[in-house]
Amino acid sequence: MESSDKELCKINELIKKSTIIDERSPARYRLKLIKHDLDPSEPYRKMTFGERDSKKPHKTILMVGETGTGKTTLINVMINYMLGVQREDKVWFEITDDQSKDHSPTTIITVYGVYDQNSPDDLTIIDTPGYGNTRGISFDKEIAMNLLRLSKDLHEIDAVCLVIDASQTRLSDRQIYIFDAVQSLFGRDIAENIVLLFTHSTGTPPKNALMAVDAKIKCAVNDKNQPVYFLFDNCQSDAANEEYETIQEQSWKLSHSGITRLFKFFENIKPKTLQMTQEVLQKRKQLEANVSNLQLRVQVTEQKQNELKQTQEALEKNRKYVEDNNDFEYEAEVSYKEKIHINSEFWHLTKEAMCCTVCQENCHYPGCWWVRNLSRCSMMRNNHCTVCTNKCHYSKHIKEAKIYVAKTKKKKRTYVDLKKEYDGKIGDGVSLVKKLEEELQELEKEKIKLVFEAFHCVDTLQMIALNADSLFTLLHVDFLIEKMKEIKEPEKAEILENIKKRAGEENTGALGYITCFIKTFS
Q1: pTM value?
Q2: Per the UniProt record, which residue ranges are transmembrane (predicted)?
Q3: How far apart, in Å, are the Cα atoms of 459 and each of 5, 50, 218, 473, 502?
Q4: DSSP annotation of 142
Q5: CB atoms closer than 10 angstroms to residue 170
Q6: Which of 4, 277, 313, 364 could form a disulfide with 368 if both were Cys (CB 3.0 to 4.6 A apart)?
Q7: CATH 3.40.50.300 domain position(s) in the chain
């Protein structure tokens, strides 16, 4: 059989495995995919074309980018390249679909497996939703958390493809935020596996776009220490037009050249495990949960401290009654916790929280999106919570649209009531006043421990994260700086202030974008 006949036969076989989308030239077809039945709690879906050959080389790539850059089109460019489609075949195959028609908003990551017997490689494409869309910052954070869950099922990754519009000449605050958010996903060791894919290209070097992103993106570099990038026009599936035939042919050649070079890069790159990336995603998630929990516990601790100080003052003021063991009445601000519904004030955060019913604390809030089996929550280790005070078993936790808040109320108390409360806690030679002082000291120790735990998360991220000074980290830094100063840890406070200064100088506008976005809709 002649080569052209073989190609035609191959195309016809692919058409049989597809459904027609549009009959114009090139005719558009959607490949028939197998949809894998996953656990409903999984935050991603998996779809495959063909059968995996364990003996063939296999590549896994992750596609990330801003909404509207043409990421979906690029995925289809990759598919057609793998299938050996040429312009003269006058066909175009697509693997992507509009998942919003058939899937819930939480199924936001799609894993495509492409296993064509005529292709030298099998390919897995992980398609993340576009960053910076109208669903807001909470949706972008949800992408990161769902990627963390998915990464636990992946052994390694070959490349991260960051899709960028070649026409941009400067970065807006929103775009800086997006690049920051994307890079916040990965460990430091992934940098040399990140490549830039410029869409809507004219074929000339994207000098302005490169200048705009060069200082903001850590990625693979060539022997001239310049970012590794590939150019695409995103017009290969457009309907043929005789008037623009020459331009369309050039467009095809440009994208075909880009995809050929990209797959050549895939051949030479060494895959990376996602261990460090998992640790980064876990630490970011833990930091947010810890700081949220810390704020509640510090508030309760400070309220309790204030209550004990008022009690001490009442004892001092009524020393004569204490010495004579006579009763007296005093008033104090008593600390307590109340569970309230998560309302519109917290719109930008998830609408559910995992709380400990024993410690009465918010163990995973915000960010508790998908998991229903609480033993699998990322805050659990060996079936016990890593966040709440008593590190309680997951069975003592509940997930619902409510969170604990700290409150105080004025309450009249008597010396007799106070003695009853501390009955059995006071040993020989220990006065009630002394016992109250010891409790204050224990509360201060607990507060210090909590602050140190949050600082450790930030410190670890500085060492392992690709984007050590993430804007999301900065959202928590001011609170930690204040608490470090309160517990007299000036060196740690200075470390945090330097992080804030370093990141703030580069991303002032983007930080303002996040803050303004939250304030506008809260």
Answers
A1: 0.75
A2: none
A3: 62, 45, 20, 11, 15
A4: H
A5: 9
A6: 364
A7: 3-273
